[in-house]
């Protein structure tokens, strides 16, 4: 009996072992295991049967949710400045790692060529550079297209 049950578990077109609720037994033998509602466990390789066919493609909720929440990177797009890894030194000279973040600010700047305001997230160093050289020149040097934003 053990050998026959192992052979049924390894056969992908095996039929349900428990008593069927259908009137004809011949209809069960012709259907493949995927139509009968079998799923294969990824941990032990055993097949588990369900009363109704398992539908994986249909989500439970009506709106799809992203797997992760997008996070804005702490990098200035104009200057390329990013976080610096440094040591935090205590009074006993014990060193622990810490991040020194860039001073990023949200600013609405007037874009003369587009005749409108552009909302940007940039560092204070980039803001000083824009005041000195102009928004168009700094964006062109950084390779940023302001018409998208």
Automatic annotation (TrEMBL):
One of its GO terms (molecular function) is structural constituent of ribosome. It comes from the Eukaryota. One of its GO terms (biological process) is translation. GO terms for cellular component: ribonucleoprotein complex; ribosome. Pfam families: Ribosomal_L28. InterPro entries: Ribosomal_bL28, Ribosomal_bL28/bL31-like_sf, Ribosomal_bL28_bact-type, Ribosomal_bL28_sf. The keyword Ribosomal protein applies. Keywords: Ribonucleoprotein, Ribosomal protein. HAMAP family: Ribosomal_bL28. Belongs to the bacterial ribosomal protein bL28 family. This is Large ribosomal subunit protein bL28c. It comes from Opuntia streptacantha (Prickly pear cactus).
């Amino acid at each position: 009996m053990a050998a026959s049950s192992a052979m049924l578990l390894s056969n992908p077109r095996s039929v349900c072992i428990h008593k069927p609720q259908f009137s004809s037994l011949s209809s069960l033998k012709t259907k493949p295991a995927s139509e009968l509602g079998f799923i294969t466990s990824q941990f032990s390789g055993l097949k588990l049967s369900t009363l109704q066919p398992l539908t994986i493609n249909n989500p439970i909720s009506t709106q799809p949710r992203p797997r992760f929440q997008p996070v804005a990177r702490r990098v200035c797009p104009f200057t390329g400045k990013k976080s610096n890894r440094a040591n935090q030194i205590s009074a006993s000279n014990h060193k622990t790692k810490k991040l020194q973040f860039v001073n990023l600010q949200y600013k609405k700047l007037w874009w003369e060529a587009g005749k409108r305001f552009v909302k940007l997230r940039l560092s204070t160093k980039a803001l000083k550079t824009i005041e000195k050289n102009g928004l168009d020149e700094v964006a062109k040097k950084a390779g940023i297209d302001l018409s998208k934003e």
